[in-house]
Structures are given as structure tokens and as C-alpha cells.
Amino acid sequence: MKQDKLFTEQYVQFNRQQWYELSHSIPFTLTEEQIANLKSMNKDFSLEEVAKIYIPISLLLNIYFNSDVKRQVVVQNFLGIHNSHVPYIIGIAGSVAVGKSTAAQVLQVLLSHWTEHSKVQILTTDCFLHTNKVLQHRGLMHKKGFPQSYDTHNMIRFLSEIKSGTPEVIAPLYSHFIYDIVPNSYKIIQKPDILILEGLNILQSSIHDLHTSYPVFASDFLDFSIYIDASEELLQGWYIKRFLKFRAREFSHPNSYFNYYSQIPEAKAIEIAINIWKKINGLNLKQNILPTRKRASLIITKGKNHVIEQVRLRR
Ligand SMILES: Nc1ncnc2c1ncn2[C@@H]1O[C@H](COP(=O)(O)OP(=O)(O)OP(=O)(O)O)[C@@H](O)[C@H]1O
Ligand SMILES: CC(C)(CO)[C@@H](O)C(=O)NCCC(=O)O
């Protein structure tokens, strides 16, 4: 009840139909290439979801992007300086397995449709996790995804370089296959028009990090943020479903960190996945992720089968 009051005061709420109707007055036609890209992404993903939910979100983001550019021009004229535009950063937060990286990919396809922001890159904050070596040393192997498992200092360094217009900024690379940071491999972010940064920790503060001497928030660098929400019951189900998908594919490779999970009976694997959910990801959701939801510019709430039922936009 208290939460409901907070939402109605701070956010404008739309149900699925109301949100969809917002895009009726603005023409937006997907190209065949975009449809092919979206279809190839994920076989469970529905194009109806793109039309009803993600196209209106991208139209809104285009409005925010353009107004940001206009504001920068006016301010620079006032100050008598001229800086070239720096990447506009959109953050996507939410639980493990809620669909952050899928949403990021859809938005990348849609947002690159506009000439003013045709270059859109994605980065996951998984790449700022400490290496397993550091996590083992600090006794944090069962805290992956918790605030203390990230190299926040490196993440802030990265964001600060992006926002100062550095032409090429490097980020580490994380692999779910080896369950670790990949040695000597990097992703290069080349001054895109938009950077989509997705990760469960992007709306968190860094006050937990004893290695950072100043209180900075990654969200200080975000221009717009989206929190993807769902009930814990659904999230646990999606986590288990994905765990079983990985078990049948990635984990079955002998070099996979979790090869063991593909060797045991399915019922045992499900039991393990439930346990990981309860002790790590579900706990992290309640302690560290959900409390950041009310910091987002936009909150989208999913129901069964990842169908988005509600959208809330900060007033
Ligand atoms: N809109 C959608 N429709 C159907 N399935 C989806 C949708 N979004 C995500 N999924 C499925 O849900 C699972 C989790 O999605 P995804 O990997 O995008 O989540 P995530 O939030 O990025 O997870 P993590 O934090 O662990 O990286 C995947 O199996 C994905 O295929
Ligand atoms: C890397 C994260 C934290 C986020 O993507 C997550 O996928 C993870 O590995 N969590 C730790 C518990 C687990 O293995 O699911």
C-alpha cells in the first residue's frame, strides 16, 4: 500500500494498452533487416512485445536524447564553449534472469534506426566483476553479483572516460562459459551515440567498496535508467529455465566451468538451481537490487512469459 502511494506520487502509470496507444500518432516501421535481427536474437521473444512495448519506449528515449542534445547546445552557447557530443548512457537494471540483456539488444536494434543515434553499443556490468582469483581470496565466490563482488573503482573509471568523450574506452570481458573474467581480452567502446549499460548493480551506490575512497554512484553517469521488474516467483522460474538451457548447451562442453551440472540427473540440477537462487541471486535481489528500483527513470513490470503488464515513468 505504502509502495503503491510512492509509485502514484512519483511515477505516471500505464497499463499495457495505454502504453501501446502512445505510439499511434508517431510512425515507426521496422525494416526487414530489423525484423530479421530481432527474430534471430531469441526464439522465445515475441514481435508483438516489440510493437506494443519496446517501440513506444524507443520513441520516448529518442525524445529524451534529442532534448538532451538541445540542452547541451544551449548551455554551450551560453558558456561560449564547444564540446562534441559525448555518449548518452541508458542503464538497464533488474534481477538476474529478468531479461536485461535481451531488452538491451532489442533497444539497440530499435534505437539505431534513427540517424541522430545510429551507433548504439551495449555493455554488461558483468565485465566489472572481480576475477575469481580475487573473489576466492576475499571469500566472495558465493557472493557473485553482490555489491562487494564488483570492481566499482574500474567501473567508475570506465564511465568517467566515456562521459569525458574519450574516443576508445576499454572494458574487461566476462564469460559465463568460464564463469570468470577472460584474461587479456577486452571490449572497446568507440564513442557511440548511445551506450546501453545493463547490469543488476547500475543503480547501486559504491559505499560498500572499501577500495574506493570517494562516494560515487554509477548512476551519476546515466542519462536515463530502466528497471525491469517481476515477482520473485517468476524470476526464480526464469532462472531455472535458463539454467536448464545452459545445462543442455554451454555446460555440456567439457571445458565449461559448470560441466558437472550437465552430468547429473535433471531433478538434481533443478534442486541445485533452486538452491543457488535462494542463497545467492534471490538474496541479492531482496538485499541489493530491489531497493534501487525507485531510483529508475522508467520501471517496466513483467508478468508470465515475460509479457510486460505495466510501465511507470518518473514524473
Ligand atoms: N522478452 C522475453 N521473452 C521471452 N524470453 C525472454 C525475454 N527476455 C528474456 N527472456 C529469457 O529470459 C532469460 C533471461 O534473459 P537475459 O539473459 O536477457 O536476462 P538478464 O537479466 O540479462 O540475466 P543476467 O543478469 O543473468 O545476465 C533468458 O533465457 C532469455 O531467453
Ligand atoms: C554474473 C551474474 C552476477 C550476473 O549476470 C550472475 O549471472 C551470476 O553468476 N550469479 C551468481 C550465482 C549464479 O551462478 O547464478
TrEMBL record:
EC top class named in words: transferase
Top-level taxon of origin: Bacteria
Keywords: ATP-binding, Coenzyme A biosynthesis, Cytoplasm, Kinase, Nucleotide-binding, Transferase
Stored CDD domains: PanK
GO CC annotation: cytoplasm
Catalytic activity: (R)-pantothenate + ATP = (R)-4'-phosphopantothenate + ADP + H(+)
Annotated GO biological process: coenzyme A biosynthetic process
Chief localisation class: cytoplasm
One Gene Ontology molecular-function label: ATP binding
Pathway the protein takes part in: Cofactor biosynthesis; coenzyme A biosynthesis; CoA from (R)-pantothenate: step 1/5
EC number of this enzyme: 2.7.1.33
Domain (Phosphoribulokinase/uridine kinase): residue spans on this chain: 89-249
Database matches in NCBIfam families: panK_bact
Family: Belongs to the prokaryotic pantothenate kinase family.
PANTHER family the UniProt entry points to: URIDINE KINASE
Protein name: Pantothenate kinase
Organism classification: Bacteria, Pseudomonadati, Pseudomonadota, Gammaproteobacteria, Enterobacterales
Gene from which the chain derives: coaA
